Amino acid sequence: MFRAWLMTPFWTALMILASGCAQPEPKPVENLCSLGPDDTEVLAEAGTRTATQREFDAELLSIPERARARYENDRGRKDITDRVLLNEALYAEAESKGLLQDPVVRTAARQAAEKAYVNALLKKIEQEAATDEAVQAHYDENASKYKRPMARVRHILVKDKALATSLHEQILGGSDFGELATKHSEDRGSKKRGGELPWATRDRWVKPFADAAFALDVNQISEPVESKFGFHILQLLEKRDMQPMDEVRPGIERVLTRNAVREY
Asked: Which of 14, 110, 159, 229 sees the fewest Cβ atoms within 10 Å?
């Protein structure tokens, strides 16, 4: 698998990057590959080849950010160090076959280095654009966009009005709402959770149910409410007018970073 992955033109260029850039006495601005001694920790060895922490970090940059979490465990880290060691072995093979002197490959290596620096620049621009302060400012300035009244309730659904009235009186008398929901509710989807329903907007519920839910104060119990499904007893658990920051933050970050890169 690694052999196929490494032998693409882009990765072939990267394998010869050091030599491709190391021309005799290059000007500093042209020497894209110059590095000081690598004194970071050695993570793996294979014969005379080593994989250092710096090489590990560099290899990790080649992986899409959204996929990097899978390399945080021991198996994933070994996968990365194996790649580094394989790169070194294939680089030596490329050198032995004279590929380091091929002008087209050397140009590709330089272009690959330039792209790495460009990608680092874009990443820096994105990070500076999507700070906590910038995200919060965008959220506040676009409050109307994120206005979305929602409620979270629990309910008991029964078919018989007399039973609904009796259960309502028991709840007001101190009986546990969740226990009564588990025992009596005919809503199979919520009864196992003590009648609790997920967050919802008004349009997700039938009108009588929604009107009752949004008219309640937090923790308040409704009178029995009739809908086409039967009779409901509701308790409002939470209510909010705005989408919370943790739900909309990824979208805000995408907007900020896209705009920052476009305007740069």
From this structure: 159
- Summarised one tens digit per residue, pLDDT across range 30-74 is 456 667 788 899 999 999 999 999 999 989 988 888 899 889 899
Which residue pairs, CB below 8 angstroms and at least 24 apart, start in 51-60? Answer: 51/80, 51/81, 51/84, 51/85, 51/88, 55/84, 56/80, 56/81, 56/84, 59/83, 59/84, 59/87
CATH class of segment(s) 147-242: alpha beta
Instruction: Report whether 151 contacts 123 (CB < 8 A).
Output: no
Q: Determine how β-strand 49-52 pairs with β-strand 147-158.
A: unpaired
Query: Residue 7 in 3-state DSSP?
Result: coil
Residues of the chain with pLDDT under 70: 1-34
User: Exposed (0-12), middle (13-18) or buried (19+): which is 213, by Cβ within 10 Å?
Assistant: buried
Predicted local confidence at residue 36, as pLDDT: 75
Evaluate whether 50 touches 44 at the Cβ level (below 8 Å): yes
- CB atoms < 10 A from the CB of 34, how many? 11
Kindly list the domain boundaries of the chain, sorted by start residue: 2-123, 133-144+245-263, 147-242
Mean confidence (pLDDT) of the chain = 87
Confirm if 85 and 78 have CB atoms less than 8 A apart: no
Separation of alpha carbons 220 and 249, rounded Å: 31
Longest Cα separation, the chain: 95
pTM over 0.70: no
Is the dihedral angle over the CA atoms 37, 90, 115, 132 positive or is it negative?
A: negative
Q: How many Å apart are CA 221 and CA 177, to the nearest integer?
A: 10
Q: How far apart are CA 239 and CA 55, in angstroms?
A: 50
Q: What is the DSSP string of 16-31?
A: THHHHH--SS--TTT-
